[in-house]
Amino acid sequence: MDTRANGNSNMDVSAHFVLQELSGKIQIMKAGLYMVYAQVYYTSPDQTNNKTDSINSYSITVSSPASSERAIAVCSVHSGLNYTSEVSCHLSIVYHLSIGDKLFLVQREPNRKILLKDGYSYFGISTLRVDS
Q1: Fewer CB in 10 Å around end: N or C, the chain?
Q2: What family name appears in the similarity comment (predicted)?
Q3: What is d(CA 22, CA 31) in angstroms, rounded to the nearest whole number?
């Protein structure tokens, strides 16, 4: 989570959202306008004599106490016909979120290999404006 200062040093941004560590979801504590961003770095193992051509995609999904889960942004990238392939997919969205909303990533295709090293795959949020 990105909790860098946004120009207002009196704002306690850590109170705007919390990370639910066991579920990997970000829960919104204060309604407002947020920038949500993510990057997923995909790798594919050497598939001897089996060149593959595939799509890798994920969504930033929000669940609300009052409604069902919905994707608010989707990132999709094509990995070419190489024996090994590494591709990343980054997206960001400015979105109004309500108290109790939970954000999380959903991998759309099964059996994908994702590199989780620092700087390769990440998920974050920045507060732009809190509702009064």
Answers
A1: C
A2: Belongs to the tumor necrosis factor family.
A3: 23
3-state class (DSSP) for residue 13: helix
Q: Which fold has domain 14-130?
A: Jelly Rolls (2.60.120)
Residue 71 in contact with residue 60, Cβ under 8 Å?
A: yes
For residue 70 the two structure tokens come to 């919905």
A 10 A CB-CB count for 1 gives 14
The residue type found at 5 is A
Q: What is the pLDDT of residues 36-79, one digit of tens each?
A: 999 999 987 655 555 566 889 999 999 999 888 999 999 999 87
User: Is the whole-model pTM more than 0.85?
Assistant: no
- The amino acid that residue 81 corresponds to is L
* Contact assessment for residue 33 and residue 24, using Cβ atoms and an 8 Å cutoff: no
Measured in whole angstroms, how far is the alpha carbon of residue 40 from the centre of its chain?
8
Element (H, E) at 130: strand 122-130
Q: Which two tokens stand for residue 22?
A: 């066991």
Q: Where do the structural domains in the chain lie, given as residue ranges?
A: 14-130
